[in-house]
Amino acid sequence: MQNRLIGLTVALVAMVALSPNLPAQTATEHGAAKAQQLNTASHAPDFSGLWTPRPDGIMLNTWDSSDPYGKKPELAPMVPWAAAKWKEARPPFGAKQTFEGINDPVQRYCDPPGITRIYMYPWEFTMIQTPKMVYILYEFTRVWRSIAMVPEHRKDPDPTWLGDSIGRYEGDTFVIDTIAFNDKTWLDHTGHPHSDALHVIERFRRVDHDTLELAVTIEDPKAYTKSFSGKKYFIATMSPMEESICAYSEYDAFQKTVIDPATKSPGK
Amino acid sequence: MKQLLLSVFVIVVGLLAVSIPAIAHHGVAGYDLTKTITLHGTVTKFDWSNPHIVIHMDAKNANGEVQNWTIELAAPTHMSRAGWTKNVMKAGDDIIAEVHPAQNGAPVGISGTVTFQLKIVINGQTLPMH
Questions:
Q1: ipTM value of the model?
Q2: Predicted structure pTM score
Q3: Which candidate from A123, A239, A262 shows the least CB-CB separation from B106?
């Protein structure tokens, strides 16, 4: 599966590099009117480059601005079933972080982190903007997603790990609206669950040449009594993205070699 | 076979007032971050793989018994950016490693994450810190 994802990513990058659909900044050559119609005006803000978490944001463990480091994750506005599910979570981060019985779907099973949690890992990402689609390539787990530059979601999309994403530019901000998730990921490092009604809004804005702001708003009326949001900042880097694969065999070996011995009670 | 030169060094060198709450793939709940010990011994294996690089080394404990320690470091991508490569050490090398030990007393420790890196010396040469 991982190899297939790598292959797809390589093919995607090659396709974009060779595509006649030039980046948004030069879309006028191929018809400004069409680009405008697709909400990708020639003056679309440029988010190209490699972005890595600003050091002060590496410890961010939730998207709740009232508890960004996950010190009181129990206070999230969860409905009863979500609160019960959260209590079952044994996360490796946050106030109740543990080494014992970890059931983090990423660490234990190499599941995709999901689009809200992936920004909490200290790895890079890059954005490839074209008139019709924007692609975000994430270094961690080498996962990528596509954002259709269209005004409406597909009708009744099927649930997926990364959801159905549409994008638009609002001045200097790139807004991504995503729905149609499965309910298998955690929203954050502290194990907050979500339902298939999850609705995520990402707002990217370049606050200066080398700093990217990401504001995330999370709505999930099946799991939370109100929406919540948070921000994280990324800085431009020249360090190329490298391989950070989640290979189950490696994770399992690490669990048995490092985590399990450090977890066993003395004398066992 | 290169003769093992093992010295006994399990020295608590400091108490850290502030814990380091989060790292790349998992937290540090299993480690005692208030303790830093220094191990001196011989590398038995250097595993450059995900999710974290792992050093295996032999060192004698206070009773003179050889223990095989397992030392966790940051992910390969982060260590690569810090200047490490797969060739920075090999089995048989002399190693001095500072580690935060496991809370349960097992010979397991952590020497580095994306947020910190303790001192590692191979054959007298200190490896890059980040």
A1: 0.79
A2: 0.81
A3: A262
